[in-house]
Write a structure and sequence with these properties.
This is Zinc ABC transporter ATP-binding protein. The chain is built from ten helices and nine strands. It has two domains: 218 residues, P-loop containing nucleotide triphosphate hydrolases (Rossmann fold, 3-Layer(aba) Sandwich), CATH 3.40.50.300; 38 residues, no CATH class.
Length: 266
């Protein structure tokens, strides 16, 4: 596999003075961000705030009109084999007779990913990726017979099959119930022992328990090196009241919103 000159102490992602515009509409402005090796960062923010766009820039799928983005010290396209990506909408026909293992093997075929001629090794790598996400028992199960949460794990295994150093996930829990969400973030926390994670999420309650840092994206970026979501941050990011963002039951569960409440009461 091609190596980089990047060392563990360098930021794995560095975004400098970045602007991005779609057809004359600026959606990201003056964004600066450093993601360290081993970080587990949540990108939160309102609909249309630019989170997916920023992920696509990190993947090298889009180019900024101004500023610079480096992944492992290089333009992202040069290190795509070190990046695993779980997109927001994974389109897969549930009636298609394809197993979980087949889906994971597709990760070996993705553009820019290394292709090995050794099919037996590929199967071992795919089984290993399924094992990492506790899905090895379901390797031969058809994808259409899995639950939403199980399917999402398979897509993560597909992203992990090339052993990336960086895993980017775009709203991975959108089709998972709240209990499933907790299990899902526990899984990500475990994976974070070996891989740096950036996850776009609207799960404000759950994420602060698991992530190490938070970036709020609403055209501009507000980055916190600690997993602390404050009332000020929410008020800046979300065009609605604190109660709308964090209903009372979230406050009483004692996760993140007690700080929100304090700020709100001041
Ligand atoms: N391909 C595109 N062409 C033109 N405009 C786009 C395109 N993709 C996104 N946009 C616009 O850019 C803005 C940011 O979109 P983006 O998908 O990055 O936001 P987001 O924060 O991920 O939103 P959500 O939470 O709803 O997924 C939105 O106004 C969106 O309409």
């Amino acid at each position: 596999m091609r190596s980089t000159n990047h060392t563990a102490s360098d930021p794995i992602i560095q975004v400098t003075d970045l602007d991005f515009t779609y057809n004359g509409q600026r959606v990201l402005e003056d964004v600066n961000l450093e993601v360290g090796e081993g970080d587990f960062i949540a990108m939160i923010g309102p609909n249309g705030g630019g989170k997916t766009t920023l992920l696509k820039l990190m993947l090298g799928l889009l180019k900024p009109q101004r500023g610079r983005i480096r992944v492992m010290g290089e333009p992202a396209v040069r290190v795509s084999h070190h990046i695993g990506y779980v997109p927001q909408d994974v389109h897969i026909n549930r009636r298609f007779p394809i197993t979980a293992l087949d889906v994971v093997l597709m990760g070996k075929l993705a553009p820019g990913k290394r292709w090995s001629a050794n099919k037996a090794q590929d199967r071992r790598d795919a089984m290993d990726a399924l094992d990492r996400i506790d899905m090895a028992d379901l390797a031969q199960r058809r994808i259409g017979e899995l639950s939403g949460g199980q399917r999402q794990r398979v897509f993560i295994a597909r992203a992990l099959v090339t052993r990336p150093r960086l895993l980017l996930l775009d709203e991975p829990t959108a089709s998972i119930d709240s209990r499933g969400q907790t299990e899902f973030y526990q899984l990500l926390k475990r994976l974070n022992r070996d891989v740096t994670i950036v996850v776009v999420s609207h799960d404000l309650l759950v994420i602060s328990t698991y992530v190490k840092s938070v970036a709020c994206v609403n055209r501009r970026l507000h980055y916190h090196r600690q997993a602390e979501i404050t009332g000020d941050m929410l008020e800046t990011m979300y065009p609605c009241t604190v109660e709308e963002v964090c209903p009372v039951e979230l406050v009483t569960h004692g996760h993140l919103p007690h700080r929100v409440l304090q700020h709100h009461e001041e």
